[in-house]
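I am still getting used to backbone structure tokens and would like to learn alongside you. To get us started, please write out a protein record for me. Once you have written the record down, we can walk along the chain together.
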Amino acid sequence: MGRKVTVATCALNQWALDFEGNLQRILKSIEIAKHRGARYRLGPELEICGYGCWDHYYESDTLLHSLQVLAALLESPVTQDIICDVGIKILLIRPKMALANEGNYRELRWFTPWSRSRQTEEYFLPRMLQDLTKQETVPFGDAVLSTRDTCIGSEVCEELWTPHSPHVDMGLDGVEIFTNGSGSHHVLRKAHARVELVTMATTKNGGIYLLANQKGCDGDRLYYDGCALIAMNGSIFAQGSQFSLDDVEVLTATLDLEDIRSYRAEISSRNLEASRVSPYPRVKVDFALSCHEDLLESVSEPIEWKYHSPAEEISLGPACWLWDFLRRSRQAGFFLPLSGGVDSAATACLVYSMCRQVCEAVKRGNPEVLADVRTIVNQPSYTPQDPRELCGRILTTCYMASENSSQETYDRARGLAQQIGSHHIGLNIDPAVKALVGIFSLVTGTSPRFAVHGGSSRENLALQNVQARVRMVVAYLFAQLSLWSRGAPGGLLVLGSANVDESLLGYLTKYDCSSADINPIGGISKTDLRAFVQLCVERFQLPALQSILAAPATAELEPLAHGRVSQTDEEDMGMTYAELSVYGRLRKIAKTGPYSMFCKLVNVWKDTCSPRQVADKVKRFFSKYSLNRHKMTTLTPAYHAESYSPDDNRFDLRPFLYNTRWPWQFRCIEDQVLQLEGRQQQGLDGVD
């Protein structure tokens, strides 16, 4: 006879320290799971307090309020007749044994891992919980739950990613259901790794694997991308959405325990290892996950996991992040300087994508999204139906022209604004720029000139920077007062639009209009942004983007030549955006310094560049990177999407004052170049 069990996992949009909201979302997810017949419900990591509390973990208030929420869950009738991470009786406190401490993670700063494998101790519950559960102590440690019909083992987030995950020995010791509550944030192209880890775990060892994850913006640069799933014996049986505006998403699957047992029975190599494994302490639970057998009850069927392309991930992830920021900051919309280039166009398209998702969620009957959008636009009876109309209420775009701006960029910005429906403003910053330069001239008696007019490089750069910084001041002025001028309440969040490659090199003016409240594209490469914009042309029907894609990238801060742009980004930088992505990945992901990077690239680029050319490119990059590293300390908080982000806040911890000449490192490169050139010359002499 089969033993069919219905299990549930979920993705919750929890918010750090929002104990009231987090409690309600947990209760809602349990109600949905029970309504669907589930007897076990899994939630994401740190779902009570929210994953991103960071140094608030040090505060006694965080622990106190978490225990109070736990008490409220224990007291609620919703948690009866189901095994949960938080249930009517505390069965086991299973501490995390492997902490995430790389990239954006700093778990060792606040927590200590449990290091005693397969051991437990008695934990004395706080009195507020003792009064509710009538328990004085509970097991605390590395143990598993034995119900009347199966065995359940837990691992937490990072433990799935370790070389020897707990599920390996748990499975060998007879655990049939593995659960993993995660706090895993989005990075482009990361979903494949997460899904493959789960399917491989159950392919080798058999069993059911439930993965829960947080979703949404927890209050900082990260976006948690859901992807809750249920797998068995190497196949996926339920897939959660990676990006959505739903605060609570619950997945359920009905699976037959006998399928696990028969799968394992024929893997003799696994069974031989199982005969030698040390047993886990078992906490006995007088509860069955399977109900009375119903032969007619259908079981879930395997499905193929559907992945988003990177361009689709960009269209969805940062848009959801923007929505969470907008509704939780209680602002009335966004203000975006729209230049007519790819980066600001991509940012505008992300707001438009957000508006599309809001309209779709309202159409599906999502009451929370409808309530939030009514609060944002300050109209209690408003119901959004058209993304363009909603975009006109939420997004204000502004083309800030100067004497160095071209008619082409003006037309491109206006055309895109018309197609997405934003409230668009056109203005000229020349009076403000001339006033500031005039103050300098009045005080010093000198007048700086652009290089094309005979000025020095210092004069040329200063005149470019003053234009850029004026745009930042104008942006914040209009963000604060443009709605007031239209008789509407509230203020606007200023959006930045510097991409990850420009930030890496420091190709931006410190405190220019890249300095904003938030930046949805600051963790995305120029190459990926162009692919995203191309997707918008086709999927969102925005033909104005075609001329933007076709135009050369330019800051338009130097004088025009016969009305045409004379300045391009790649000429200014001295390298291409494609090269910048290569440098970024080698610097951060491969962890190379100047010499190691040269050694790698001299081989990778051997068909297109000589050793001397590679050396010059590497030295140019590191010189500019180190010279401008100080700008990373003031980068606008940006959506984290790329693993080579130079974000100085928490992800890429490095000095911001360097010896930009790199004398020792560059000398090592020169020695290698001379050796390689000598070998090449010997080869030529041999041919002669």
Summary: The chain is about 45% helix and 15% strand. The mean pLDDT is 93. The first strand starts at residue 4 and ends at 12. The radius of gyration is 29 Å.
